[in-house]
Amino acid sequence: MPDTSLERLHGVLAAARAAGADAAEAVFAVSRALSVGVRKGEIENVERDETADLGLRVFVGRKQAVVSVSEFSKATLDRTVDRAIAMARLAPDDPYAGLADPARLYRPINRAMMDLQMCDTTHLSAENLQQRALDIEAAGLALSESLQSDAASAGYAQNQWTLLTSDGFEGSHNTSLFFQSGRFIATDADGNMERDGEGRSTRYAADLPDVADIGRIAAERALAALGARKVDTQKAAVFFDRRIAKSLISQFLGAISGTAIARGSSFLKTKLGQAIFAPHVQIVDDPFRMRGLGSGLFDDEGVATRRTELIKDGVLTTWLLNTASAKQLGMASTGHASRSLAGPSGVSTHNVVLQPGPSSPQDLMRDAGKGVVVTSMFGPSVNSDTGDWSAGASGFWFENGEIQYPVNEITVAGNLIDMYARLVPASDLDIRGTVDAPGFLIDGLSVGGK
């Protein structure tokens, strides 16, 4: 970050303290992004964004307020500080508001500075991105005349985020994100249409897969979905493809969020220290993965991160805590604070992985006999108090480990507590994002069909 920006943050903090804040934190974020989308061989959109924003959170007694601005003249920053202090004095008391415990903050002397390789400074031109998107589209369309392009795109973003607090914490991280995707529509002889796609995001441009592979995989998925049938309503084994398996793990993460636990609005609120999954199941959050999309040495309150076994041998070991939820629960922050510039801290994870099991997807399906492979879901619904869950879905019917035919217009439902207890992970883990899981099988779910 330029020295002028650091000076600006220090100045805002000093002004906030002088105006009556007992404590304050300031964040400065800069982002540059460029993306190109194509459809049917023509450019559909070109988007270029360059933004800079400053966020200020102040604490006056047990009250707090958060404001943000995107213009940084002295007059604007002075008004921002005054407004923040005035808002805080009018806010209700919050006994859990405050800066993070200094003892838990990240300090370079606590751990050798780690280069997590989070930022690739490669700059791609709009012409380069356009060609990538066109190549994705061409690779997919080459598979069949029954295909048409729905969309293809490529782009990247580079960001810098810096946090300063009145307690003396100062930390910054630079990140980049490169992405490309394609989506196709397949049409059969009767005019029935199916859509599917493939996409990938990486920290480094060189880690993106070949554009031809993106197009081919996306097209193959659309073609494979043609001829979908409905199935009878029944109880059946369901294999959740790894593309969407992570959504059920995300439901688990939401249920162990400290904010949800503190509110008492989680179906897992009484389960800390208990077996939630089978003994062979492990779920790990690792903030130190090289080039990981959620990696970082500290969270959005400056608390040092650590590798955490959320589920160890099936047992729930911890809540996900920021400073406020930790105080409310009489615990310590786990380094999972996340915040926008315009709001107080929430909770989020880093790089969560459900560890793979020993059996392939085919072996799990063979052992199950018959059931549904779910490859896409829409409109998922969960009761946060009970864990009752349902979603619309499509995918394939399988028997004896072999795919028989595509299915659509089905619903899958169950109770997440029961589902987690019966979850059996496959061996096909593919690390791609901030929450990753292999495919997994859950028996005895309600499948709604015709």
Protein described:
This protein has 9 helices and 19 strands. It is α+β, with helices and mostly antiparallel strands and about 450 residues long. It folds into 3 domains: about 5-100, PmbA/TldD superfamily (PmbA/TldD fold, 2-Layer Sandwich), CATH 3.30.2290; about 125-225, PmbA/TldD fold, CATH 3.30.2290.10; about 230-450, no CATH class. The strands form 4 sheets. A 6-stranded antiparallel beta sheet has the order 3-2-1-4-5-6. A 5-stranded mixed barrel has the order 7-14-15-16-19. Helix 3 packs parallel to helix 4. The mean pLDDT is about 95.
Put the structure in a nutshell.
By secondary structure, the protein is α+β, with helices and mostly antiparallel strands. It is 23% helix and 37% strand.
Give a quick set of tags describing it:
globular; PmbA/TldD fold; alpha+beta; PmbA; 3 domains; TldD/PmbA_N; about 450 residues; metallopeptidase activity; Modulator of DNA gyrase family protein; five-stranded mixed β-barrel; six-stranded antiparallel beta sheet; 19 strands; 9 helices
Terminal Cα span: 59 Å
Specify the biggest β-sheet.
6 strands, antiparallel
Topology pattern, helix = H, strand = E: HEEEHHEEEHEHHEEEHEEEHEEEHEEE
What's the helix count? 9
Physical arrangement of strands within the biggest beta sheet: 3-2-1-4-5-6
- The total beta strand count reads 19
Shape: globular
The radius of gyration over CA amounts to 24 Å
Q: How much strand content do the residues show?
A: 35-45%
* Poorly predicted tracts of residues: none
Kindly state the mean pLDDT as a whole number?
Answer: 95
**Sheet/helix structural class:** alpha+beta
Helix content: 10-25%
Could you say how many structural domains there are in total?
A: 3
Domain Metalloprotease TldD/E C-terminal: 233-449
Region (Disordered): 335-364
Domain Metalloprotease TldD/E N-terminal: 24-88
GO molecular function, one term: metallopeptidase activity
